Amino acid sequence: MSEYQQNGTSDSSQTWPNMAHFWMPFTANKQFKANPRLLVSAQGMYYTDIEGNKILDATAGLWCCNAGHGRQEISEAVSKQISQLDFAPSFQMGHPLAFELADKLCQLSPDGLEKVFFTNSGSESVDTALKMALCYHRANGQATRTRFIGRELGYHGVGFGGISVGGIGNNRKTFSQQLLQGVDHLPHTLDIANNAFSHGLPPHGLDKAEVLEQLITLHGAENIAAVIVEPMSGSAGVILPADGYLKRLREITHKHGILLIFDEVITGFGRLGAAFASERWQVTPDMITTAKAINNGAIPMGAVFVSNTIHDTCMHGPDELIEFFHGYTYSGHPVAAASALATLSIYENEQLFDRAKGLELYFEQAVHSLKGLPNVIDIRNTGLVAGIQLAPSDKGVGKRGYAIFDHCFRQGALVRATADIIALSPPLIVEKSQIDDMVNHISDAINAVG
Ligand code: PLP
Fold it and tell me: Which SUPFAM superfamilies does the UniProt record give (predicted)?
């Protein structure tokens, strides 16, 4: 039992919950429950924890709250919608907001990607996209195209499809016998030896895209359905592609009739100073998977943007035929749709994507000022994302990263640690002084932890 649970209450008016029953996701449960970090409210750039401490949010929650916290417009839209239409079946029935939202979303998506399929999470968006790829090739008379190509260190959520194309060992090992068959992985694009402390897209590593040609030679293009990559890998610690790498993947996939899927669950909706990474880096894939900031994280929601070609090809057969045997009870849920529409209005009215672009240089210089601190071996950034990589301590991989994360939290800043990489992805409403605060918190923590 933790000291907190023994006390039962904290200094604030909040009562500590019984923590015995919630099996927390992606969390070291025993460690957490012995020394919990509980958030009870949020406003603007700050959380408040259960003891009443203000915590600067340097992670937009979990890459979600791009418009900042406690947005009245979103809570009003949610509350209005839940009273008006709390639920509508999504199979063979519709409601206007889902159509309105799809329409609005497609004003942001790259030209040619003008169909939207709604999901409830990033994992569901990924599995939906993989299934769509198979559906498309079959409808297109190329049913042998069933193989997928992901990338080492890629994170595509936790469905069996997502962990199969994903490349994070810990997420796969326990389930290895049950993963999708016929999946290969491109090499990851992290190259600290050549690219350490690059600003923006690193110069070295374009050649890693050529491995795709080798895989195509090995398996035959006629057997490959799709390549899926995060334009920028977030979960493995902010790993950027070399300049030109994504363009090269697009050229190769085009040449061989292979679909290209960008998983933009974290890069979507302004994180990189544009609606999508594909816009920022001028590469249009065939599908884009999204979630998180689509509605500022308010309610579970995701969406897959699909090319008109894929959609139209699947629309074969008589009118009464269901084209795609796939979907979720909550696809396009009215309350989630209302929250997303309110969020998109905030992004537009406050020009938050441009704001992120305008802050990028300041943010870049601020995070790179950490170079030279003890154990900092690389710093990577793009848009309003940064990764600060530390050498593992001799106590083991991840110990230093966790200690810095926990130290920052106890001192009033929420950062994210993946192994020994500290990731920053603040809400796009962040002020320059708050960027300075984040960097100061990290610097203090690095010095304190050693
Ligand atoms: N894809 C990417 C690139 C992600 O970063 C994530 C989550 O962080 C996911 C998919 C999975 O999203 P979710 O946790 O909503 O299922």
Answer: PLP-dependent transferases (SSF53383)
